[in-house]
Q: What sequence folds into this?
């Protein structure tokens, strides 16, 4: 196995990983602020893909511009889901919250299947024919580079949102101590709603960016829900920086696994890492900072 | 349970066994088979998810172990089918030992996530080792019954449901059952009064896995052919948990009621929604969490007893 193949796998892994990072950061934000493991996260990403797909086929505008619209729609969707469903069961056990989000995910997936059918779709944009060559043996497909750039900017924006804005500070305060936060005058429900909406939007935008390089079908989100869990556990459950780093690591590990063992083992290796981290170091390998 | 309850239970089993005298179409018997099968699965899940309060979303692992155990032990190793069923059960219990050993050290969402991860690892391994399991192409399963198979499988499912029910009743009234409920209500307090949480949870999981594997073997044998995405899928885990939650987790009758409602609804909506039949699962799940947190049986029992402790009924 030559070194270029490995290098190529690492580069592909980082490019994929940036999109994973966006999904993982969204889930980590939701978990940190709400203590809810959102089993519908992948379904929200899938919704983002379908929204972008519909807009693209109607208007012909590039997904790399449409992601802004998709993000806005998913933000609104997340906000409504929070107040309609999450808010009423506030304070109930993990058990109930997990089952609720599981139900929401099933509804999203099968509603989409009912409307669009189970067929696979793929879109074509001119950018897909462009490849960048680095040296003689490594080449990179242009859509991945564009989505990588956008994902990095958005990940940074999400980080600044959490670290610098008043709402972000409030979110971190809730993550630190959800009983003390309201005593400091924080409107917990409003901040949770915004966090849930931002997390949903991050998943939806990742879906929009994945659309040009991936297949589209109603169940596409399922594997991403699971991958997002892996990232969040790897990153320390409530740290968005940890989740982002874990996304990159996961992308690289998957691509190296595909290279050496075959594509079909990539997801299994994800879960093996997941189980190992959970049993050996449940606080994650990227430390323990909150949100 | 008072004597009247036992009599009612025995009468229900006898009546269930007599159903094939009246119902003779294959389709109806298959639907009834599915209802009793998922009642057993719900009851098995209920020991861990309901009484011990540990949200397992990976019961497909044991279901699949039972199914693949039957297929592989008889197909590859040449055991007789019923012996292979027992070997599959042993395999599922071995899985439970491993999964429980790791997962029960985790709590809340971490536990649920790790059960999913283990079930997925099994599914992906089964998919990726075609030499051993047939991979995505699948593997043939020997017939456990011959002749009038729909009737035989129906009876087997009734017997399994009766066994699961009897075990649930015995456990829920034994010290072991109270240990499990104590762990569910407050694990730390349970530990502090000397209840070995890890040991009791593991014991519950072993029983649950054995019953689930029996159901998996029955399911596999009625289809005569299995693939990983059918018997080891997340959908199976979800359906098992939904059956128990819908009827009422931590009640003896809940999973049976849940299976009757869910499988009937699923059968009705299958024709309306085609491939999107899981829509009804999602809707029922959200409905139960928002409006019936004790499940159907738990809520009714709560109303009857004017008690506000969920899951105390039946």
A:
């Amino acid at each position: 196995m030559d070194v270029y193949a490995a290098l190529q796998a690492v580069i592909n892994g980082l490019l994929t990983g940036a999109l994973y990072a966006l999904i993982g950061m969204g889930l980590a934000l939701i978990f940190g602020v709400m203590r809810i493991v959102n089993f519908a996260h992948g379904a929200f990403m899938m919704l983002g893909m379908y929204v972008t797909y519909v807009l693209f086929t109607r208007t012909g505008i590039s997904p790399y511009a449409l992601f802004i619209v998709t993000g806005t729609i998913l933000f609104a969707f997340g906000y409504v889901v929070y107040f309609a469903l999450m808010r009423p069961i506030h304070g109930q056990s993990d058990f109930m919250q997990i089952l609720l989000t599981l139900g929401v995910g099933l509804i999203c997936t099968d509603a989409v299947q009912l409307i669009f059918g189970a067929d696979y779709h793929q879109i074509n944009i001119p950018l897909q024919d462009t490849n960048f060559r680095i040296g003689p043996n490594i080449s990179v497909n242009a859509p991945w580079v564009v989505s990588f750039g956008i994902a990095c900017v958005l990940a940074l924006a999400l980080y600044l949102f959490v670290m610098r804005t008043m709402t972000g500070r409030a979110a971190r305060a809730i993550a630190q101590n959800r009983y003390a936060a309201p005593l400091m005058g924080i409107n917990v429900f409003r901040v949770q709603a915004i966090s849930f909406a931002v997390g949903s939007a991050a998943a939806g935008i990742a879906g929009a960016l994945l659309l040009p390089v991936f297949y589209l079908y109603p169940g596409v989100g399922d594997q991403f829900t699971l991958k997002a869990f892996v990232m969040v556990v790897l990153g320390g459950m409530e740290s968005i920086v940890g989740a982002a780093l874990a996304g990159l690591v996961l992308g690289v590990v998957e691509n190296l696994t595909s290279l050496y063992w075959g594509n079909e083992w990539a997801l299994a290796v994800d879960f093996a890492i997941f189980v190992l981290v959970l049993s050996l170091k449940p606080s994650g390998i990227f430390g323990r900072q909150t949100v | 349970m008072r004597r009247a309850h036992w009599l009612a239970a025995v009468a229900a089993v006898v009546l269930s066994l007599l159903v094939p005298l009246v119902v003779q179409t294959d389709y109806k018997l298959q639907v009834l088979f599915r209802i009793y099968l998922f009642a057993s699965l719900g009851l098995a899940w209920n020991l861990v998810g309901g009484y011990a309060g540990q949200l397992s979303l990976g019961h497909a692992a044991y279901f699949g172990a039972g199914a693949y155990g039957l297929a592989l032990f008889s197909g590859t190793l040449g055991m007789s089918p019923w012996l292979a069923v027992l070997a599959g059960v042993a395999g599922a219990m071995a899985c439970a030992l491993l999964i429980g050993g790791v997962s029960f050290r985790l709590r809340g969402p971490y536990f649920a996530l790790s059960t999913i991860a283990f079930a997925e690892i099994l599914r992906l391994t089964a998919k990726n080792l075609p030499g051993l399991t047939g991979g995505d192409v699948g593997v043939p399963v020997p017939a456990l019954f011959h002749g009038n198979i729909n009737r035989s499988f129906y009876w087997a499912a009734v017997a399994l449901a009766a066994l699961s029910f009897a075990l649930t009743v015995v456990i829920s009234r034994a010290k072991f059952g109270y240990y499990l409920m104590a762990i569910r209500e407050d694990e730390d307090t349970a530990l502090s009064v000397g209840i070995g949480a890890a040991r009791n949870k593991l014991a519950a999981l072993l029983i649950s896995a054995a019953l689930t594997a029996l159901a998996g073997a029955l399911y596999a044998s009625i289809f005569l052919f299995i693939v990983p995405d059918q018997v080891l899928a997340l959908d199976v885990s979800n359906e098992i948990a939904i059956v128990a939650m819908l009827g009422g987790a931590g009640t003896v009758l809940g999973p049976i009621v849940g299976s009757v409602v869910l499988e009937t609804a699923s059968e009705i909506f299958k024709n309306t929604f085609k491939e999107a039949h899981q829509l009804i699962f999602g809707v029922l799940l959200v409905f139960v969490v928002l409006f019936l947190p004790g499940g159907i049986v738990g809520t009714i029992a709560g109303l009857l007893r004017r008690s506000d402790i969920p899951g105390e009924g039946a």
Notes: Chain A touches chain B through 42 residues (CB under 8 Å). Chain A has one domain: 3-280. Chain A is about 70% helix and 5% strand.
